[in-house]
Amino acid sequence: MAEADRSKALDNALAQIERSHGKGSVMRLGDQARVPVEVIPTGAISLDIALGLGGLPRGRVVEIYGPESSGKTTVALHAVASAQRLGGIAAFIDAEHALDPDYAEKLGVDTDALLVSQPDSGEQALEIADMLIRSGALDIIVIDSVAALVPRAEIEGEMGDSHVGLQARLMSQALRKLTGALSNSGTTMIFINQLREKIGVMFGSPETTTGGKALKFYASIRLDVRRIESLKDGTDFVGNRT
Fold first, then answer.
1. Is 194 helix (H, G, I), strand (E, B) or coil?
2. Are strands 39-40 and 56-57 parallel, antiparallel or unpaired?
3. pTM, entire model
C-alpha cells in the first residue's frame, strides 16, 4: 500500500473510531503535553527517594506486604496522614477489624475526618471501595488486608468446606473494575497483604502473598516491608526499624 493510501486509511479509521466511541478515544501520544505523575508522599523521605517518584503515584494500585508486625499498616497510615496534610480525603477499609484509632492519631492521621468501614465480607469491602473511588472525591484508600477479604460463600459455609480459588477470583474481578476508576479519579489505592509459604518449594523463596496473582500484575508499586531490628530506650522497646 502506498504511503498516501496508508495515511488516508488510518485517518478514515480514526474518524470512524471517534464517531463510534467519542473524541479522544484514540490519540497520538505526542499530541498532548506529558504531565508529571502526581504523588502522595509516604511520610519517609528515604522511601520517597527510593521509589524514584517522590511518593506513591496517584491513580494507581500499591501493594504493601510482609511478615506479621513488620510495619505494613504503619507505612499505609503515614501515607494517609500525608494525603490529609495536603488537604485530601482518605478512607480505610478495615477488613481485619483491627484499626487502632489512638495509634493512627499518633502517626498524624486526622481520625475525625478519616472514613472508616468494617465490612462483613470481601465482596462488601470491594463494593464500598468501588463506590468511594467512583465518587471522584477520594485521594487515598487503604484496604487492610487482602487476606481478610473473605468471600461471602466462605463466610456462609461450614468450617472445613473447600473454597478453592474464590478469593483469587474475587480479587481478579475487582481489580479489573477498579483500575480504570482509579485512573479517572486520581485515587491511590493501597492493599496491605500478608505472606504465606508454599509447600514443597526446594529452590527459591517459598514465600508468596495471598489473593492470587492479579494484584501482582495490577500493582504499580509493591513494597516489601521487613522488620530489621527492635529499637530500645535503655531496656524498654520503643519501636522497630523496617
1. strand
2. antiparallel
3. 0.88
